[in-house]
Structure formats: C-alpha cells, structure tokens
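Retro notes (design track)

What went well: tokenization of the new backbones is finally stable.
What didn't: we kept losing track of which sequence belonged to which structure.
Fix going forward: every design gets posted as structure first, then sequence, in one message. First example under the new rule, 147 residues:
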C-alpha cells in the first residue's frame, strides 16, 4: 500500500467518524453542533479530490441548514403565538394561568343610559351623549346627486 493510498484511507476513516459525529448531534437536536464535523469532512473530501464526497458533504450541509431554518421558523412562530395569546390563557400543554382579576364594577346609572330615560326627561339634553356638543350645529348630511 502506497503512502497516498494510506493517507486517503485514513482521510476516509476520519470522514466516516465526522459524519457519524454529525449524525449523532443532529439526532440530539443539536443542529448547530452538527455542522462543524460536516464542514471538516467537506475539506477532507476536497483535499482528496473526491467529487462525489464533496457533493455528499454539501448535500448534508444543505440538509442541516434547512433543518436549522425550519427549527428557527417553528420557534419564531411559537413565540409569536405566545405573544398574541390573550392574557390569562395557557400555552397548549403548558401550565394553566389564572386570569387577571376583573376591574371593580361601576354603578349601573353611571355607565348606561337608555333612550327611554333620555326621552322621559330624567337626563337633561345638554348631557345627552346622542345630541353632540351643546351649541354646535349638527353635522351636515351629504346625499349623492340623483341621476
């Protein structure tokens, strides 16, 4: 066995270890850590002039980057969903959050007046919210021209 063949064999064994290391990291959802071994394997393929190996390593890198992008996208969506959830609701599968306390109730007469009570004269017209500001003319109603 020549020295070149021996070096090439050692390089391919090293590449095999690197790819296995990358696969193990990817299985443990450590996608960022799985990239470095594949990049090292790609360099070894280049040094040994293996076009097929380079294509394999490039495809593996592309696959890892795609998985990372997908994972980042899914995390971003989860964060957006959590932020858009109304206060007091729980994340599916997460802890149940107690709703915030209700504000104190206002007396009914301070919050609601009916048209009947305005007509009966119980509320002076100057305070009638339906009449606008006292002393100002009502808004003009513009009708479209007849054709």
């Amino acid at each position: 066995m020549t020295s070149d063949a021996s070096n090439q064999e050692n390089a391919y064994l090293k590449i095999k270890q690197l790819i296995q290391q990358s696969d193990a990291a990817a299985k443990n959802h450590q996608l960022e850590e799985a990239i470095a071994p594949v990049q090292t394997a790609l360099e070894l393929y280049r040094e040994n002039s293996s076009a097929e190996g380079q294509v394999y390593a490039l495809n593996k890198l592309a696959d890892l980057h795609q998985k990372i992008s997908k994972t980042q996208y899914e995390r971003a969506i989860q964060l957006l969903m959590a932020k858009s959830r109304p206060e007091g609701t729980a994340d599916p599968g997460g802890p149940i959050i107690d709703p915030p306390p209700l504000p104190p109730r206002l007396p009914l007469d301070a919050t609601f007046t009916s048209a009947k009570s305005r007509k009966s004269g119980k509320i002076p017209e100057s305070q009638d919210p339906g009449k606008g500001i006292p002393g100002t003319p009502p808004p003009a109603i513009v009708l479209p021209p007849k054709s």
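Added context from the reviewer: Residues 29 and 44 are 25 Å apart (CA to CA).
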